[in-house]
Amino acid sequence: MKGFMPLREDAEKRGKLIKAASERHAPPDEACKLIGSFGQAEIKMIKYVETHAAQCGIPPQIADQLKNGHKNTETMQQKVCAVAQQAQQKGPTGPSLSDVLGSAATVPEASTSKKRGSTFDTLSGNVLDR
């Protein structure tokens, strides 16, 4: 089991990198590479479990669970890498509509001088001000 723990920690670390990339909406090509490295870590775990199952007393269900998880990883990698490849084939995008029209991409500032309403406001004004 001592040899399995570093493999598991490596896979967990790579899984956390994928999660972080997902949360920051990383580009597909970066996600493809991260998922690929996670898949390699999974393969190392599967090989270790298969070779040391009898010696370490690892139940056969563990190897099956790891293999099923790896199938899901491979499926996800194929999908993400396909999207990354499509993005590379598209090439750079053309100018945006605001570039073509020559309009500014700035948002006007919101005025903060609005009068705040209160609980006693009605359609004809504040009842307490009368």
Topology (SSEs and partners):
Blueprint: H1 4-23, H2 28-56, H3 60-90, H4 97-101, E1 121-122, E2 125-126
Antiparallel strand pairs: 1-2
Helix pairs in contact: 1-2, 2-3
- Helix and strand pattern: HHHHEE
Shape descriptor: elongated
How widely separated are the two ends?
81 Å
Proportion of beta-strand residues: under 5%
Helices, by number, come to 4
Question: Structural class, from helix and strand content?
Answer: mainly alpha
Report Rg. 28 Å
Unreliable stretches: none
Reading side by side through the largest sheet, how are the strands ordered? 1-2
Let me know the largest β-sheet.
2 strands, antiparallel
Helix content: 55-70%
Mean pLDDT reading: 80
Beta strand count: 2
